[in-house]
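tl;dr need the bound structure. longer version: we got a ligand (flavin-adenine dinucleotide) that a collaborator sent over and nobodys looked at where it sits. i said id run it. heres the input, straight from their email, havent touched it
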Amino acid sequence: MTWPYYLKTRDKKSLEQFLRETIALCAPLSARLNHAQLSSPVEATGNYSYVCDRTHGSNYLLLGDAYTFIDPVFSSGVMLAMHSAFVGADTVDTCLRHPQRAAAALKKFDYTMRLGPKAFSWFIYRVTNPTMRNMFMQPRNIFRVKEALLSVLAGDVYGETPIRGPLLLFKGLYFATSALNFRRTLKAWRARKRNIRAVDETGAAMN
Ligand SMILES: Cc1cc2nc3c(=O)[nH]c(=O)nc-3n(C[C@H](O)[C@H](O)[C@H](O)COP(=O)(O)OP(=O)(O)OC[C@H]3O[C@@H](n4cnc5c(N)ncnc54)[C@H](O)[C@@H]3O)c2cc1C
């Protein structure tokens, strides 16, 4: 994992050279990859998360990656794609068999499609900040919050088990811990803001 600004310091180096130099920055990684060989040319892409404005339209549904792709940090993509296929199949079935219920079925489909990625994104967006890092490194199971968190990360994001209370508590603890460590929170927020900024093609800040 690295900050976007670092990736933009590549300048005119080839992708392969930049990759090799980046690996060399980490001695243990470099040692582990000492005898590794490239199996294909090095390729690069930007942030590959995206989300469509809509989940469906006239005679089509957007399933899986066709609707959204979120950072695979919690390995959620296949589960979300498969779940969307189940919900999509039910929705199409209802639209064909009971056209009068189509609008309600599509509304439910839309809600479900947005729910899963949103639940994971809340954690993905915060996972690298100090508050979340400390909570992960010193886990405690007060009011079963640890179980609720594990349940979410295992894919329980559609409200089929009673984890809503403990999960809200987890988020409350997160915000309370952030507020109690206000200076650290502010510092992390500023660092993030500094790191995620507009840069020109040479890597220099544009503002
Ligand atoms: C680097 C990376 C790491 C990832 N790691 C994980 C992970 O650890 N765990 C996890 O759960 N998810 C992970 N994902 C996400 C996961 O792979 C996807 O979210 C998931 O595969 C989406 O499934 P899908 O069926 O929507 O799309 P896809 O799996 O992309 O399936 C779409 C299929 O449609 C085919 N196709 C495209 N166009 C046409 C056409 N015109 N005609 C016919 N066929 C076509 C494609 O060839 C493809 O086979 C990762 C993704 C990436 C990029």
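gonna send this back to them w/ a short note. The radius of gyration is 21 Å.
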